[in-house]
Design a protein that fits this description.
Elements (H helix, E strand, L loop, with lengths): L2 H20 L15 E5 L8 E6 L5 E5 L4 E4 L7 E2 L9 E7 L5 E8 L4 E5 L7 E5 L6 E7 L5 E8 L2 E7 L7 E2 L22 E4 L3 E5 L7 E5 L7 E4 L9 E8 L5 E7 L10 E4 L7 E2 L10 E4 L7 E5 L2 E5 L7 E4 L5 E4 L5 E4 L5 E6 L2
Antiparallel strand pairs: 1-28, 2-3, 3-4, 4-5, 6-7, 7-8, 7-10, 8-9, 10-11, 11-12, 12-13, 14-15, 15-16, 16-17, 18-19, 19-20, 20-21, 22-23, 23-24, 24-25, 26-27, 27-28
Amino acid sequence: MTSMGKTRRMMSVGLIGAALALTLAAPARAGETPTAAAGWQLTPTGTDARFRGLAPVDRRTAWAAGSKGTVLRTTDGGRSWRNVSPPGAGDLEFRDVEAFDARRAVVLAIGEGEASRVLRTEDGGATWTESFRNTDARAFYDCMTFFDRRHGLAMSDPVDGKYRILSTRDGGRSWQVLPSAGMPDALPGEAGFAASGQCLVSAGPRDVWLATGGGATARVLHSADRGLTWTVTDTPVPAGDPARGVFGLAFRDRTHGIAVGGDYRKDQPSPQAGAVSTDGGRTWRPSATPPPAYRSGVAWLPHSRTAALAVGPTGTDLTTDGGRTWRTVDTGSYDTVDCTPDGSCWASGEKGRIARLATRP
């Protein structure tokens, strides 16, 4: 094994051990970290914004985007956060952020008509440039993903019966609406959920998946050509109501994926909140032991073939068998979760909450 391989293996084992240590602790009270060797460690953000957009770059650098036009950035592992919100953005609702490094990031604001916008920074948030503003009152953009530093997509709820896809080839500096000829028809009432920045996700240079809800069935659409043509598959996650469906996706490669969701209403159960695919989203199987409640975000642990985390307003769940079974390991409220190649996991949510998965000495 090469030295790089050994380093990655050590990071993988250490991070999985940190996540597994959560399973040894009794569930904490909401907002608290379990008294075990590892857990979510809240970081001081100095704001009460709700962060549904999260883009960690590495152990030290992460971006978060949320309500009231708020964008934060850390370069010291979360010990401090700098408010780098775009000027005059207080009325915007940022629900997704994609970051390339400590200086370059792209944020997506959601909403009907001109409320849907994309902004980009190349200087760590000191200045921002608006690169897209939606002028179609029928469109409502939900999520965004990048294949690499240049190529990315954003998706809107159906317009004229089909999901609308935006494409960029220059890192988010400019955007074009893709032709809709290769997009399947949307179901009546079907839409995406702008809950975690994970209703549109990619893996590798060309594959992308789109999660839906609100229709008769919760579906996942897949494109292998960066959004030009799509196939669609039903999932076992319950739908049939505007509040139900698949809210978050995670693919560790172009084959293995996890879907989470349910019913986001607090008084409604989510009996089948997880599903698994091992064929690139062509088929989905229900989790044998799903998360016990609605979950909006999901992420594979770095360099692991079997371990992943799912989060929602009522807790964090861990799987060690690729999404087939889940166990609740924390009861704090989070909306989204993401992990970095160098071995760190982050989560964010309501009331300014941003946390890192950290081991204790």
